[in-house]
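USER: I would love a firmer grasp of how sequence relates to backbone shape in proteins. This is the protein in question:
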Amino acid sequence: HESEGLSSKHLVVRRGRPFKITLFFKDEPFSPLMDSLVFSAQLGELYVQFPLTFSRHVSAFKWGGQILSENSWSQSLRVLIFTPPNAPLGLYNLQLHIKSQAQQHSYALGNLILLFNPWSWRPWSDEVHLSHADQREEYVKNDSGILFMGTPDNLLPRTWEFGQYEEGILETCLKILDMSPQHSKNSQKDNLCRSNAVYLSRVVCAMINCEDDRGVLKGNWSGDFSRGVSPSQWTGSADILKCWERSQCRPVLYGQCWVFAAVMCTVMRALGIPSRVVTNFNSAHDTNANLIIEEFYSETGEKLQLSKESIWNYHVWLECWMSRPDIGSEFSGWQVLDPTPQEKSGGIFCCGPCPVKAIREKRVDLFYDVPFVYAEVNASVYTAIVKNNQVVHQSLDANRVGSLVCTKGVNSYLAQDLTAYYKNPHKTPRRNSSLHEEARSMSVSLQLDKVPVAGQSISFSVTVVNNCGTSRRLKEHINAQMKEYSHNLLETFWEASNMIKLGPYEGKSLTIEHWIDPSQYEQVLRDDGLVNLAVVIKDEVTLERKLASEEFNITMPWISIQVEDESNIVVNKAHSAILVFHNPFWVPIDGVLTVCGSGLIQGKVQSKVYQLQPGEKREQAVNFIPQMPGTKVLQASLEFKDSPLVLRGFKSVLVRAT
């Protein structure tokens, strides 16, 4: 049943696949002539009875029981139990009723948890059937993963422990369903509807955030996390789910988009629905549904926060695999579900399931929330330079939003590009001709020389081309601002200005090199390392202006993890690893080193790091005892004191049973 390790308290089986149990009779043996056996399964108010039979023709599409023992006059009886492939998911109470001529006895056999079944024998049996074995291993059974952040040209991978095999997590996932408003309002109807993956996914999606209910996580983008845990400090879902359960279902503080999506991924994988965490880079939040996001700059290249709409450098959501008989089988497959509370859907803060195919085909008439997700990957960006509240330059970019959509590859830690599944490259976006740029008598571009690395200079070049027949006297303004991935801008940390002279028809262009010293950004560097860099070129005579901008992230050095004798890692045996890290900055740092790994380390191992000098390299040994076989991930983070900066690293570890 592919359910080993999901629970130590309950039998866990997948619907539509028979399972065997053995009945032991204490006093008299079972007599097929005198006794009849009837099972009952109960989920809340839902109740079903079915007899045990010797027949070999038991329907696989409803509850049933088949006696396997050849010698029925025995103190024990082997039985095969059938569950329907569309049975509601949940914690069932199983009972046996023995009826004889004179009396009837009932016996509680215990509880069983029934899950969705991507391994269903027939593709039409379970609506979450996934035919490829390697995808089932990745999207259902894998308890660790990679979340991608940063920018499209410099992906920042972050490990995450989904932890669906951690003790009590499956039971907590079922409790999430029981705490939903749908269950509180009508538990019988809710239990019955749990057979449907579309219904269940919307319930879970709304319950991951706490805006409408007793959900798991409270979102916070203010920067003040003093009442809880900073979203960047979470390394896995299990701690969050356990905290929610222990606190009597009070929301855990705090989450942001990747935390919401990763926790929902844990819940969905635990319940048996194939799921993967997806990142949309340059993700639009279109509040007025016109597919236009407005951005504004000053004459000196400072980006201004004048618009209620926003483009996040990245936004993280979930894809779940399921059929969609409600809107047509052609839209079955991967569905977007986004638990981050942004806009209401059907009166509650959830999004989806939205068919990926419907987004690509712009089927905005389909359920659920296709227009909103379509805008997140397809909106155009209107950019304007403003002076005294007047627009002095404008342009429209139809390619920036949704420039990369990706997820962790199957059996790989590299990113799999999903962009073509969301965006149709053969359809040309419509442009409003009134927003076209002025005649291209001058062009400006901005180019990074290399991927910026913490502790090193940021080097870039500005190229200006004069395409007209007159000489030009130009003013160059450059502005660099730190920013948060969720649109919020910080103050300018570096700026420069220069005078430029260009001759007529100087098509060969003029390139100006620039450098930003690390001492100028180290004190304001954020965890994501995101920078908005913009240049405005102004013709001092014609007052024509051109803008070029680039948003990039500064790469932090990785923590190197070396596992000793890594080809011989076995369960329940002590092993060790060496962590190597260094200080890339020009000032000493203190911090806390944290090491964790689901299935490798119980909880977290933490140690303090004092006075790590500029450029200094240190090593730290850590011991671990694997608890279960399979591919596990050892991850480490070094959080700086009095700073939002974090160094990270991870190592894949293959654990053998013996």
Summary: The longest strand covers residues 489-502. The chain is about 15% helix and 40% strand. The chain has four domains: 11-115, 143-408+415-420, 440-553, 560-655. Confidence is low (pLDDT under 50) at residues 430-439.
